[in-house]
Amino acid sequence: MFAAIVLLVLVLGTVVFHLLSPWYFTPIASNWSSMDSTVTLTFIVTGLAFVLVNIFIAYCLIKFRNKPERRAEYEPESIKMESWLTILTTVGIAAMLAPGLLIWKDVVTPPDDSMNLEVLARQWNWSYRLPGEDGKLGAVAVSHTTADNPLGIDPSDPFGQDDIIVYDPVLHLKVDQPVTFLLRSTDVLHNFTVPQFRVKMDFVPGQVSYIWAEPQKEGSYDLLCEELCGVGHYAMRGRVIVDSEEAYASLASRSTHLR
Amino acid sequence: MEYAAHDETSFVRPAEVGEMELYHAKTWLGKYVFSQDAKTIAIQYAGTAIAIGMVALVLSWFMRLQLAWPNTFAFIDPAYYLQAVTMHGMIMVVYLLTALFLGGFGNYLIPLMVGARDMVFPWLNMISFWVYFTAVVLLAASFFVGGGSTGAGWTLYPPQAILPGTPGSEAGILLMLASLAVFIIGFTMGGLNYVVTILQARTRGMTLMRMPLTVWGIFVATILALFAFPALFVSAIMMSLDVLLGTSFFMPAIMTMGNEGSHVGGNPLLFQHLFWFFGHPEVYIVALPAFGIVSDLISIHARKNIFGYRMMVWAIVIIGALSFVVWAHHMYVSGMNPYFGFFFATTTLIIAVPTALKVYNWVLTLWRGNIHLTIPMLFSIAFLLFFINGGMTGLFLGNATVSMPLSDTLFVVAHFHMVMAVAPVMVVCGAIYHWYPKITGRWYHEGMARFHFWVTFVGSYLVFLPMHYLGIMGVPRRYFEITGTTFLPDSAQSVNASITIAALVVGFAQIVFLYNLITSAFNGKKAPGNPWNATTLEWQTETTPPGHGNFGKELPCVYRWAYDYSVPGVEDDFIPQNVPPRNAQA
Fold first, then answer.
1. Residue A150: how many CB atoms within 10 A of its CB?
2. Tell me, what's the ipTM?
3. Would the pTM of this model clear 0.90, i.e. be above it?
């Protein structure tokens, strides 16, 4: 009896904690609210299963607890019941998987009008590279890296000569402008996470990975590295500022870097 | 009534192997140190695993202290913190849980439960333990070398694992890789032994579909390990070559500390694929023995046959097979081709179906049972709560889209602790209490055991449930401290502090557990040979604890499955597997 009550308290306490505690996602600032919906859907489906199965356990603990005259039933199996449970579970899982796969297609496909910009992560700081007037980022290689050319831009590639380089850890973005972040590292693994954007992706030295988002709410957001990159990992923070169209335009005109 | 299907015993196969010749040790050293008796080896494995596990437990306290009260403890700096994180994870997963389930429970239970005198290769078994012991010594040595143990995270991802900037990138990482390689060599010896014993040394009448689920779980887990560990073995060798010989398996051209490195052309993602090709089956290497054991505990202590035995066996086999095609769900945000996400999200969610079925069958075993709330049963119930909870959050993380906001946060840490740390540990505790009277011939102290249960059960839940919400808020894992953000409320810190307090209390309860186990072995009440009225063969031995050779003059002959509890028309509520049909009616 006591065990059943403790179990019930823990399970129902979990539900109450989930619904009433102030601790949940930070408000979203990008287009990925569909991602939040899949989380909510998954919470509903799994939450129901979690509560129902545990209440059933608690019921059994009370109803079928040992008494002197009690004898268990002998019931090796019931193919029928097992089949029904399998079908029910499969339906529940498909209901969570299907929207997940559909949205994943959006995650892996940046829209045509998205702006490419490069994020360069190094132990333990951030820099950014935006295409110049030609709209294209120039080629880069670790072998071109020098003190004057820390990003390793290929001097023979004309596209690279007008690239805008931002050494500041602060990145300005224009609201409602989809951005594809091209992620490049020259040392170890890193990760690009803005909690308010929901999406995140690792940097892998030797390749360029990508992730895209459309910032939809003006504001100043933390940028975190979420892939272990050495002792400075926890301190590798940056900042992403989402500006209004006007603020972004004036920023671009007065900055020597951001034309 | 499908009773007959499980009791067709008119024909008993002749023994496949004759009585085996046992090695009888002549010296104290041969009997207790270089023992060739699986039961002694089991205790050596378990003792070593628990000893190094206690080190990992203490490391977790250091982590928790730092997270709850940052900048309070001078001896915990970022490097030390990462070393604690890394060693805690690696020790718990590989050196404690894998070694304890397969080396400990596997060695003790396989020969006894299938009705064999010993493992088929006793000498190899002895070597296997000492190789494992060497691996533990190598691992422990890395605490004391220059630069300390590796702080690369238990996943040991290159390039950072072997570059300056990561703690222990000198000797620490090499000792870790060497220790893993040695561990795998030792495990392969033991693993082949377990598989061959189960396939070849079962006693007469012990068909595969009459084996207790404990043996099934350990059997399939061992096969998984034999296929999965080689991937880790080669990655350990390849990474060592990258360090020692300057090869570039995992190392692309990079800048390190302002200079161009000497490597060119390697691929860090290759390591991640190899690691998780091992790492995901590893989850099931720990989980399947727990599944098997908990099935038996629930059945015995509810005095009812396990519901859907055949389905339970096939679920173990199917989960084992599927576990090899889900590995890249650990890599949705790793920078691998993101289109892989479609495939791996689908396979991962499919694996939830047989897993859910196992949960239903455990729960349906309780239904209309006769539930004795013994300590092993209490731990089994606790396992169910943690496993169901952790399984549900697995559906978040396995689904690529849903996982994206949550990956690399404390949500992941909370999830895997629920599902593959606390849940299996609940089974370990339940199993130790369950078989304690057989192993020692004495009872544990009931009061201490109940204290241990309640503190561990409630405490662990209070540790890991709130941790999910820290992750949802966006707290990343492997962070030394996270102050100065604009998205975390101050109350997040109080959640961290409460988790730490719960963790310290749970840790203390484990000391009571060990104290109970050690003192009761000498002072406990004498226990009878079959105190739980169980059907399986280990409870039918002539002596308790079982002597060298396990059984008396003759090996038992098996006439029925392992779950003849509360059979209608039979007075006792259990019929041991070795009782012939004509003797069962009373």
1. 16
2. 0.96
3. yes
